[in-house]
Predict the 3D structure of the following.
Amino acid sequence: MSAISELIVLLIFVLLGVCGLAFIFLTFKVRRSNKPWTLLTSFLFIFLIFCFRSCEINGYKNSQLHQVGIYYLTNFPNCDDCILELKEDMTYQVRSKNKVIENSNWHFESGGDYWITYLDNDRSQLGSGDYAYKKYHLKYPEQKD
């Protein structure tokens, strides 16, 4: 299903772009009285491309914020009570009893049917290896309508 959703997003961009270019081309071909309308329509399609892209970026940022929170690690070396805190500024800290053991950056990646939170410049993933967890507490939990 994710490939179809990615294809639909690409199709929307292509359709908006082709329509915008077609109306720009028509602006030079139609009679003088219709030129303002075709030019205005081409600007409308270009505006719609930017609006769609903005909505896509906001959706990504919202998905990223839904990862922010505290994760109780189970496999971190030499530490039974370590917690990992993902912060809004795209950094994380691994702490044990108010002592910072590790800190670095993180980023989020998703694609329809998967999501991955990468830690420490893509060296590790949250939920596997040293960063496995069983419990977590999200700062911005997803609200169900």
